[in-house]
User: Fold these one by one.
Assistant:
Number 1:
Amino acid sequence: MKESLYKLKRRIGFLYAELGLAAGRGLIAKAISAKIGRPVKLARLFKGSGWGLKYLVYEQGESSPAYLVKTASLIIERRLQRVIGREYLTYRERFKMESEVLSSLARIGLGPCVILCEKDFFVREFLPGFSLIELPLPDIKKWLPKVLESIDRFCDSGVFHTDPNSANVIVNPGENKIGFIDSEIPAPGSDKIVPERTKRAFCHERLLYSLGRDLRKKAGFKPELLEMLFPPVNDYYNQSAGSILSPGRAIDLVKGRVIQIEIPA
Ligand SMILES: Nc1ncnc2c1ncn2[C@@H]1O[C@H](COP(=O)(O)OP(=O)(O)OP(=O)(O)O)[C@@H](O)[C@H]1O
Ligand SMILES: [Mg+2]
Protein backbone atom coordinates (compact mmCIF):
# COMPACT_ATOMS: atom_id res chain seq x y z
CA MET A 1 0.00 0.00 0.00
CA LYS A 2 2.73 2.43 1.11
CA GLU A 3 4.81 1.39 -1.91
CA SER A 4 2.00 1.96 -4.44
CA LEU A 5 1.21 5.37 -2.91
CA TYR A 6 4.88 6.28 -3.27
CA LYS A 7 4.84 5.18 -6.94
CA LEU A 8 1.70 7.20 -7.60
CA LYS A 9 3.23 10.31 -6.02
CA ARG A 10 6.32 9.86 -8.15
CA ARG A 11 4.25 9.58 -11.33
CA ILE A 12 2.24 12.67 -10.50
CA GLY A 13 5.47 14.54 -9.69
CA PHE A 14 6.94 13.47 -13.03
CA LEU A 15 3.89 14.61 -15.01
CA TYR A 16 3.89 17.94 -13.20
CA ALA A 17 7.63 18.46 -13.80
CA GLU A 18 7.10 17.56 -17.44
CA LEU A 19 5.08 20.77 -17.85
CA GLY A 20 8.40 22.61 -17.54
CA LEU A 21 10.50 20.48 -19.92
CA ALA A 22 13.57 22.38 -21.13
CA ALA A 23 13.44 20.54 -24.47
CA GLY A 24 10.24 19.06 -25.93
CA ARG A 25 9.97 15.28 -26.36
CA GLY A 26 9.35 15.65 -30.09
CA LEU A 27 12.52 17.69 -30.51
CA ILE A 28 14.57 15.18 -28.50
CA ALA A 29 13.24 12.23 -30.53
CA LYS A 30 14.04 14.09 -33.76
CA ALA A 31 17.61 14.80 -32.65
CA ILE A 32 18.20 11.15 -31.69
CA SER A 33 16.68 9.88 -34.96
CA ALA A 34 18.94 12.25 -36.91
CA LYS A 35 21.96 11.01 -34.93
CA ILE A 36 21.35 7.28 -35.38
CA GLY A 37 19.56 7.43 -38.74
CA ARG A 38 16.49 5.52 -37.53
CA PRO A 39 13.12 6.59 -36.10
CA VAL A 40 12.72 6.36 -32.31
CA LYS A 41 10.02 6.86 -29.72
CA LEU A 42 10.39 7.95 -26.09
CA ALA A 43 8.73 6.41 -23.04
CA ARG A 44 8.71 7.96 -19.56
CA LEU A 45 10.95 6.29 -16.96
CA PHE A 46 9.63 6.96 -13.48
CA LYS A 47 12.69 5.54 -11.68
CA GLY A 48 15.27 7.61 -9.85
CA SER A 49 15.32 10.52 -7.47
CA GLY A 50 14.63 13.06 -10.17
CA TRP A 51 17.07 15.94 -10.62
CA GLY A 52 16.39 15.20 -14.24
CA LEU A 53 13.50 13.59 -16.10
CA LYS A 54 14.35 10.31 -17.80
CA TYR A 55 12.97 8.71 -20.97
CA LEU A 56 13.68 5.32 -22.47
CA VAL A 57 14.40 5.42 -26.20
CA TYR A 58 13.03 2.63 -28.38
CA GLU A 59 13.95 2.09 -32.00
CA GLN A 60 11.00 1.30 -34.23
CA GLY A 61 9.75 -2.29 -33.81
CA GLU A 62 12.03 -3.02 -30.81
CA SER A 63 10.71 -4.03 -27.39
CA SER A 64 13.91 -3.29 -25.42
CA PRO A 65 15.18 0.26 -25.01
CA ALA A 66 18.40 1.13 -26.83
CA TYR A 67 19.14 4.46 -25.09
CA LEU A 68 18.14 6.59 -22.16
CA VAL A 69 17.67 10.38 -22.20
CA LYS A 70 18.13 12.66 -19.22
CA THR A 71 16.57 16.08 -19.66
CA ALA A 72 15.75 19.01 -17.41
CA SER A 73 12.52 20.43 -16.05
CA LEU A 74 12.59 24.15 -15.35
CA ILE A 75 10.11 23.51 -12.52
CA ILE A 76 12.61 21.21 -10.77
CA GLU A 77 15.49 23.56 -11.56
CA ARG A 78 13.76 26.51 -9.88
CA ARG A 79 13.28 24.39 -6.75
CA LEU A 80 16.90 23.18 -6.82
CA GLN A 81 18.15 26.72 -7.20
CA ARG A 82 16.12 27.81 -4.19
CA VAL A 83 17.24 24.89 -1.99
CA ILE A 84 20.91 24.73 -3.07
CA GLY A 85 21.57 28.45 -3.35
CA ARG A 86 25.09 29.47 -4.34
CA GLU A 87 26.27 25.90 -4.92
CA TYR A 88 23.62 25.33 -7.61
CA LEU A 89 24.98 24.15 -10.96
CA THR A 90 22.86 24.58 -14.08
CA TYR A 91 21.59 21.44 -15.77
CA ARG A 92 23.83 22.19 -18.71
CA GLU A 93 26.89 22.06 -16.48
CA ARG A 94 25.61 18.92 -14.74
CA PHE A 95 24.80 17.12 -18.00
CA LYS A 96 28.23 18.00 -19.38
CA MET A 97 29.97 16.66 -16.26
CA GLU A 98 27.90 13.49 -16.19
CA SER A 99 28.46 12.88 -19.92
CA GLU A 100 32.22 13.28 -19.52
CA VAL A 101 32.41 10.81 -16.63
CA LEU A 102 30.15 8.28 -18.40
CA SER A 103 32.23 8.53 -21.57
CA SER A 104 35.41 7.88 -19.58
CA LEU A 105 33.76 4.88 -17.93
CA ALA A 106 32.54 3.60 -21.31
CA ARG A 107 36.13 3.67 -22.61
CA ILE A 108 37.11 1.11 -19.94
CA GLY A 109 33.92 -0.95 -20.32
CA LEU A 110 32.32 0.28 -17.09
CA GLY A 111 29.59 2.61 -18.29
CA PRO A 112 27.22 3.58 -21.08
CA CYS A 113 28.48 5.38 -24.20
CA VAL A 114 27.08 8.87 -24.57
CA ILE A 115 25.78 9.36 -28.11
CA LEU A 116 24.56 12.97 -27.80
CA CYS A 117 25.14 15.75 -25.28
CA GLU A 118 23.09 18.86 -26.03
CA LYS A 119 22.50 21.82 -23.75
CA ASP A 120 19.05 20.68 -22.58
CA PHE A 121 19.44 16.88 -22.63
CA PHE A 122 21.88 14.08 -23.14
CA VAL A 123 21.55 10.54 -24.41
CA ARG A 124 23.44 7.48 -23.28
CA GLU A 125 23.18 3.78 -24.06
CA PHE A 126 20.66 1.87 -22.00
CA LEU A 127 22.47 -0.75 -19.91
CA PRO A 128 20.37 -3.91 -19.57
CA GLY A 129 20.29 -5.43 -16.08
CA PHE A 130 19.36 -4.37 -12.56
CA SER A 131 20.55 -1.76 -10.10
CA LEU A 132 22.64 -3.46 -7.40
CA ILE A 133 20.05 -2.49 -4.77
CA GLU A 134 17.22 -4.13 -6.76
CA LEU A 135 18.86 -7.56 -6.55
CA PRO A 136 17.98 -10.10 -3.86
CA LEU A 137 20.51 -10.18 -1.02
CA PRO A 138 22.25 -13.46 -2.08
CA ASP A 139 22.87 -11.91 -5.51
CA ILE A 140 24.17 -8.68 -3.97
CA LYS A 141 26.57 -10.85 -1.96
CA LYS A 142 27.70 -12.63 -5.13
CA TRP A 143 28.26 -9.43 -7.15
CA LEU A 144 29.75 -7.24 -4.41
CA PRO A 145 33.43 -8.23 -4.95
CA LYS A 146 33.14 -7.48 -8.69
CA VAL A 147 31.51 -4.12 -7.92
CA LEU A 148 34.34 -3.21 -5.51
CA GLU A 149 36.96 -4.34 -8.04
CA SER A 150 35.25 -2.22 -10.69
CA ILE A 151 35.43 0.83 -8.41
CA ASP A 152 39.15 0.21 -8.00
CA ARG A 153 39.49 -0.20 -11.75
CA PHE A 154 37.91 3.14 -12.63
CA CYS A 155 39.91 4.85 -9.87
CA ASP A 156 43.08 3.29 -11.36
CA SER A 157 42.09 4.83 -14.70
CA GLY A 158 41.78 8.29 -13.13
CA VAL A 159 37.96 8.47 -13.39
CA PHE A 160 36.23 10.25 -10.52
CA HIS A 161 32.65 9.06 -10.14
CA THR A 162 31.05 11.42 -7.64
CA ASP A 163 28.13 9.21 -6.63
CA PRO A 164 28.69 5.44 -6.90
CA ASN A 165 25.69 4.64 -4.69
CA SER A 166 23.93 1.27 -4.79
CA ALA A 167 21.24 2.49 -7.24
CA ASN A 168 23.86 3.83 -9.65
CA VAL A 169 25.52 0.45 -10.22
CA ILE A 170 23.95 -1.62 -13.00
CA VAL A 171 24.60 -5.36 -12.87
CA ASN A 172 24.13 -7.35 -16.07
CA PRO A 173 24.16 -11.02 -15.05
CA GLY A 174 23.68 -12.24 -18.65
CA GLU A 175 26.93 -10.64 -19.81
CA ASN A 176 28.71 -10.76 -16.44
CA LYS A 177 29.18 -6.98 -16.58
CA ILE A 178 29.04 -4.05 -14.20
CA GLY A 179 28.25 -0.48 -15.28
CA PHE A 180 28.11 2.81 -13.39
CA ILE A 181 25.71 5.68 -14.16
CA ASP A 182 24.71 9.05 -12.72
CA SER A 183 27.80 11.05 -11.78
CA GLU A 184 27.64 14.81 -11.44
CA ILE A 185 28.50 17.35 -8.64
CA PRO A 186 31.06 18.58 -7.41
CA ALA A 187 31.70 21.92 -9.03
CA PRO A 188 33.94 21.94 -12.15
CA GLY A 189 37.62 21.79 -11.31
CA SER A 190 37.20 20.60 -7.73
CA ASP A 191 37.95 17.01 -8.80
CA LYS A 192 41.45 18.22 -9.65
CA ILE A 193 42.21 19.35 -6.11
CA VAL A 194 40.95 16.26 -4.28
CA PRO A 195 43.82 13.78 -3.76
CA GLU A 196 43.48 10.45 -5.62
CA ARG A 197 43.49 8.46 -2.40
CA THR A 198 40.60 10.50 -0.98
CA LYS A 199 38.58 10.02 -4.17
CA ARG A 200 39.11 6.26 -4.00
CA ALA A 201 38.17 6.12 -0.32
CA PHE A 202 35.08 8.24 -1.01
CA CYS A 203 33.90 5.93 -3.83
CA HIS A 204 34.27 2.80 -1.66
CA GLU A 205 32.64 4.44 1.34
CA ARG A 206 29.75 5.81 -0.73
CA LEU A 207 28.98 2.37 -2.17
CA LEU A 208 29.13 0.51 1.17
CA TYR A 209 27.27 3.11 3.19
CA SER A 210 24.49 3.61 0.62
CA LEU A 211 24.11 -0.15 0.20
CA GLY A 212 23.51 -0.71 3.93
CA ARG A 213 21.25 2.34 4.19
CA ASP A 214 19.14 1.37 1.17
CA LEU A 215 18.85 -2.27 2.26
CA ARG A 216 17.58 -1.17 5.68
CA LYS A 217 14.82 0.80 3.92
CA LYS A 218 13.66 -2.21 1.85
CA ALA A 219 10.31 -3.79 2.69
CA GLY A 220 10.69 -6.95 4.84
CA PHE A 221 14.30 -6.17 5.76
CA LYS A 222 15.72 -8.18 8.67
CA PRO A 223 18.96 -6.92 10.31
CA GLU A 224 20.44 -10.44 10.56
CA LEU A 225 20.27 -10.74 6.75
CA LEU A 226 22.75 -7.89 6.41
CA GLU A 227 25.37 -10.15 7.99
CA MET A 228 25.40 -12.13 4.77
CA LEU A 229 27.42 -9.29 3.25
CA PHE A 230 30.13 -9.18 5.93
CA PRO A 231 32.31 -12.10 4.66
CA PRO A 232 32.76 -10.76 1.09
CA VAL A 233 33.36 -7.23 2.45
CA ASN A 234 35.85 -8.52 5.01
CA ASP A 235 37.66 -10.63 2.37
CA TYR A 236 37.86 -7.80 -0.15
CA TYR A 237 39.46 -5.30 2.21
CA ASN A 238 41.70 -7.92 3.79
CA GLN A 239 43.09 -9.16 0.52
CA SER A 240 43.39 -6.25 -1.81
CA ALA A 241 46.94 -4.89 -1.79
CA GLY A 242 47.22 -1.40 -0.30
CA SER A 243 43.57 -1.61 0.68
CA ILE A 244 41.91 1.76 0.98
CA LEU A 245 39.69 0.85 3.96
CA SER A 246 40.15 -1.37 6.98
CA PRO A 247 37.76 -4.37 6.97
CA GLY A 248 36.30 -3.12 10.28
CA ARG A 249 35.45 0.31 8.88
CA ALA A 250 34.03 -1.23 5.70
CA ILE A 251 31.63 -3.40 7.74
CA ASP A 252 30.72 -0.48 10.03
CA LEU A 253 29.78 1.52 6.91
CA VAL A 254 27.44 -1.27 5.75
CA LYS A 255 25.95 -1.46 9.25
CA GLY A 256 25.49 2.33 9.32
CA ARG A 257 27.55 2.58 12.51
CA VAL A 258 29.75 5.19 10.88
CA ILE A 259 28.90 7.72 8.20
CA GLN A 260 30.76 7.82 4.88
CA ILE A 261 33.26 10.59 4.23
CA GLU A 262 32.14 13.38 1.92
CA ILE A 263 34.10 14.83 -0.96
CA PRO A 264 36.15 17.71 0.47
CA ALA A 265 34.92 21.05 -0.91
N1 LIG B 1 22.09 4.09 -18.92
C1 LIG B 1 21.22 3.42 -18.17
N2 LIG B 1 20.98 2.13 -18.39
C2 LIG B 1 20.09 1.45 -17.63
N3 LIG B 1 19.38 1.99 -16.62
C3 LIG B 1 19.57 3.26 -16.36
C4 LIG B 1 20.49 4.06 -17.10
N4 LIG B 1 20.46 5.31 -16.60
C5 LIG B 1 19.55 5.29 -15.60
N5 LIG B 1 19.01 4.07 -15.45
C6 LIG B 1 17.98 3.66 -14.46
O1 LIG B 1 17.29 4.82 -14.01
C7 LIG B 1 17.52 5.05 -12.62
C8 LIG B 1 17.69 6.53 -12.37
O2 LIG B 1 18.72 7.06 -13.19
P1 LIG B 1 19.87 8.00 -12.61
O3 LIG B 1 20.55 7.28 -11.51
O4 LIG B 1 20.71 8.47 -13.75
O5 LIG B 1 19.03 9.23 -12.08
P2 LIG B 1 18.69 9.76 -10.61
O6 LIG B 1 19.23 8.89 -9.55
O7 LIG B 1 17.26 10.06 -10.61
O8 LIG B 1 19.55 11.04 -10.62
P3 LIG B 1 19.31 12.46 -11.25
O9 LIG B 1 18.91 13.24 -10.08
O10 LIG B 1 20.65 12.83 -11.79
O11 LIG B 1 18.22 12.39 -12.29
C9 LIG B 1 18.77 4.24 -12.29
O12 LIG B 1 18.84 3.85 -10.94
C10 LIG B 1 18.62 3.05 -13.23
O13 LIG B 1 17.73 2.08 -12.69
MG1 LIG C 1 20.87 7.64 -9.50
Number 2:
Amino acid sequence: MRHLNNNKTYQEKSQKKKRKEKLANKKKTTKPAVVHSAFPPRPASDHLIHCIISGFCNDTSPSQFEEAGCAVCGQLTLLSELKAFNEVDICYDPLINSLAAKIEKKTLDDPDNEVRSPILDPDCLHICKTCLSALKKNKRPLKSLANHLWIGKVPEALEGLTYGEKMLIA
Ligand SMILES: [Zn+2]
Protein backbone atom coordinates (compact mmCIF):
# COMPACT_ATOMS: atom_id res chain seq x y z
CA MET A 1 0.00 0.00 0.00
CA ARG A 2 2.75 2.39 0.97
CA HIS A 3 4.63 1.51 -2.14
CA LEU A 4 1.58 2.43 -4.25
CA ASN A 5 1.24 5.81 -2.55
CA ASN A 6 4.90 6.57 -3.18
CA ASN A 7 4.47 5.59 -6.80
CA LYS A 8 1.44 7.89 -7.14
CA THR A 9 3.23 10.92 -5.71
CA TYR A 10 6.19 10.21 -7.98
CA GLN A 11 3.86 10.16 -11.01
CA GLU A 12 2.18 13.41 -9.94
CA LYS A 13 5.54 15.11 -9.50
CA SER A 14 6.76 13.94 -12.87
CA GLN A 15 3.54 15.21 -14.53
CA LYS A 16 3.99 18.62 -12.90
CA LYS A 17 7.58 18.72 -14.13
CA LYS A 18 6.47 17.89 -17.65
CA ARG A 19 3.83 20.66 -17.58
CA LYS A 20 6.42 23.18 -16.39
CA GLU A 21 8.82 22.13 -19.14
CA LYS A 22 6.06 22.45 -21.75
CA LEU A 23 5.23 25.98 -20.54
CA ALA A 24 8.91 26.95 -20.56
CA ASN A 25 9.30 25.57 -24.10
CA LYS A 26 6.21 27.48 -25.24
CA LYS A 27 7.66 30.71 -23.87
CA LYS A 28 10.96 30.05 -25.60
CA THR A 29 9.43 29.13 -28.94
CA THR A 30 6.95 32.02 -29.22
CA LYS A 31 8.73 34.39 -31.53
CA PRO A 32 7.30 37.66 -32.77
CA ALA A 33 5.39 37.21 -36.00
CA VAL A 34 7.45 38.21 -38.98
CA VAL A 35 5.62 40.70 -41.14
CA HIS A 36 6.64 40.64 -44.74
CA SER A 37 6.08 44.06 -46.15
CA ALA A 38 7.15 45.58 -49.36
CA PHE A 39 9.70 48.33 -49.36
CA PRO A 40 9.08 51.19 -49.87
CA PRO A 41 5.65 50.98 -48.19
CA ARG A 42 2.57 52.03 -50.11
CA PRO A 43 1.26 55.56 -49.55
CA ALA A 44 -1.40 55.88 -46.83
CA SER A 45 -4.99 55.33 -47.94
CA ASP A 46 -7.49 58.18 -47.99
CA HIS A 47 -9.32 56.61 -45.04
CA LEU A 48 -6.12 56.42 -42.95
CA ILE A 49 -5.23 60.03 -43.81
CA HIS A 50 -8.75 61.12 -42.85
CA CYS A 51 -8.51 59.25 -39.51
CA ILE A 52 -5.11 60.79 -38.69
CA ILE A 53 -6.19 64.34 -39.53
CA SER A 54 -9.56 64.15 -37.77
CA GLY A 55 -7.88 62.59 -34.71
CA PHE A 56 -5.35 65.44 -34.63
CA CYS A 57 -8.15 68.02 -34.97
CA ASN A 58 -10.14 66.42 -32.15
CA ASP A 59 -7.12 66.24 -29.84
CA THR A 60 -6.12 69.86 -30.45
CA SER A 61 -9.58 71.45 -30.54
CA PRO A 62 -10.13 74.31 -28.06
CA SER A 63 -12.58 72.21 -26.02
CA GLN A 64 -9.69 69.92 -25.06
CA PHE A 65 -7.66 72.63 -23.31
CA GLU A 66 -9.89 75.67 -22.71
CA GLU A 67 -10.36 76.41 -19.03
CA ALA A 68 -12.86 78.34 -16.97
CA GLY A 69 -13.36 78.99 -13.28
CA CYS A 70 -15.68 77.05 -11.00
CA ALA A 71 -18.06 79.40 -9.22
CA VAL A 72 -18.06 77.25 -6.08
CA CYS A 73 -14.33 76.67 -5.55
CA GLY A 74 -12.87 79.29 -7.92
CA GLN A 75 -10.37 76.86 -9.44
CA LEU A 76 -9.51 76.91 -13.13
CA THR A 77 -10.77 73.65 -14.64
CA LEU A 78 -11.00 72.23 -18.15
CA LEU A 79 -14.23 73.28 -19.84
CA SER A 80 -14.93 69.65 -20.68
CA GLU A 81 -15.08 68.89 -16.94
CA LEU A 82 -17.39 71.81 -16.07
CA LYS A 83 -21.15 72.11 -16.19
CA ALA A 84 -23.05 75.31 -16.77
CA PHE A 85 -25.29 76.51 -13.93
CA ASN A 86 -28.37 76.35 -16.13
CA GLU A 87 -27.69 72.63 -16.80
CA VAL A 88 -27.72 71.57 -13.15
CA ASP A 89 -30.54 71.68 -10.66
CA ILE A 90 -29.10 71.48 -7.15
CA CYS A 91 -29.54 73.17 -3.78
CA TYR A 92 -26.84 75.72 -2.88
CA ASP A 93 -27.75 75.91 0.82
CA PRO A 94 -24.50 74.21 1.98
CA LEU A 95 -22.65 77.23 0.55
CA ILE A 96 -24.34 79.65 2.96
CA ASN A 97 -21.75 80.53 5.59
CA SER A 98 -22.23 83.90 7.25
CA LEU A 99 -18.81 83.66 8.93
CA ALA A 100 -16.90 83.23 5.66
CA ALA A 101 -17.70 86.51 3.91
CA LYS A 102 -18.82 90.04 4.62
CA ILE A 103 -20.20 92.76 2.37
CA GLU A 104 -17.51 95.30 1.49
CA LYS A 105 -17.52 98.47 3.57
CA LYS A 106 -17.21 101.66 1.52
CA THR A 107 -16.84 104.02 4.51
CA LEU A 108 -15.86 103.61 8.15
CA ASP A 109 -19.47 104.21 9.20
CA ASP A 110 -20.85 101.31 7.16
CA PRO A 111 -22.07 98.43 9.34
CA ASP A 112 -20.55 94.94 9.23
CA ASN A 113 -22.97 93.05 7.02
CA GLU A 114 -22.58 89.33 6.60
CA VAL A 115 -23.30 87.61 3.30
CA ARG A 116 -26.45 85.56 3.88
CA SER A 117 -26.63 83.99 0.43
CA PRO A 118 -24.59 81.13 -1.06
CA ILE A 119 -20.99 82.22 -1.57
CA LEU A 120 -20.33 81.93 -5.30
CA ASP A 121 -17.88 83.74 -7.57
CA PRO A 122 -20.14 86.08 -9.59
CA ASP A 123 -17.71 86.06 -12.55
CA CYS A 124 -17.93 82.30 -13.07
CA LEU A 125 -20.84 80.58 -14.79
CA HIS A 126 -19.79 76.96 -14.32
CA ILE A 127 -19.43 74.35 -11.63
CA CYS A 128 -16.80 71.59 -11.52
CA LYS A 129 -17.56 67.88 -11.08
CA THR A 130 -16.01 67.71 -7.60
CA CYS A 131 -18.14 70.54 -6.25
CA LEU A 132 -21.20 69.22 -8.04
CA SER A 133 -20.91 65.74 -6.53
CA ALA A 134 -20.49 67.20 -3.02
CA LEU A 135 -23.50 69.52 -3.42
CA LYS A 136 -25.62 66.66 -4.72
CA LYS A 137 -24.95 64.95 -1.38
CA ASN A 138 -25.98 68.22 0.33
CA LYS A 139 -22.42 68.74 1.63
CA ARG A 140 -20.15 71.79 1.43
CA PRO A 141 -17.20 71.03 -0.91
CA LEU A 142 -13.88 71.00 0.95
CA LYS A 143 -12.23 73.57 -1.33
CA SER A 144 -15.31 75.77 -1.78
CA LEU A 145 -15.11 79.51 -1.32
CA ALA A 146 -17.78 79.15 1.37
CA ASN A 147 -15.31 77.06 3.39
CA HIS A 148 -13.49 80.23 4.51
CA LEU A 149 -11.54 80.55 1.25
CA TRP A 150 -13.34 83.60 -0.19
CA ILE A 151 -11.18 86.72 0.01
CA GLY A 152 -13.39 88.84 -2.21
CA LYS A 153 -12.73 90.35 -5.61
CA VAL A 154 -9.32 91.83 -6.38
CA PRO A 155 -9.58 95.64 -6.09
CA GLU A 156 -9.23 97.55 -9.36
CA ALA A 157 -6.04 99.25 -8.15
CA LEU A 158 -4.37 95.85 -7.76
CA GLU A 159 -5.62 94.18 -10.96
CA GLY A 160 -3.02 95.32 -13.50
CA LEU A 161 0.18 95.20 -11.49
CA THR A 162 3.58 94.54 -13.01
CA TYR A 163 5.75 91.70 -11.74
CA GLY A 164 7.87 94.13 -9.69
CA GLU A 165 4.79 95.71 -8.10
CA LYS A 166 3.42 92.28 -7.21
CA MET A 167 6.71 91.44 -5.53
CA LEU A 168 6.51 94.67 -3.52
CA ILE A 169 3.08 93.92 -2.08
CA ALA A 170 3.58 90.17 -1.67
ZN1 LIG B 1 -15.35 73.54 -7.99
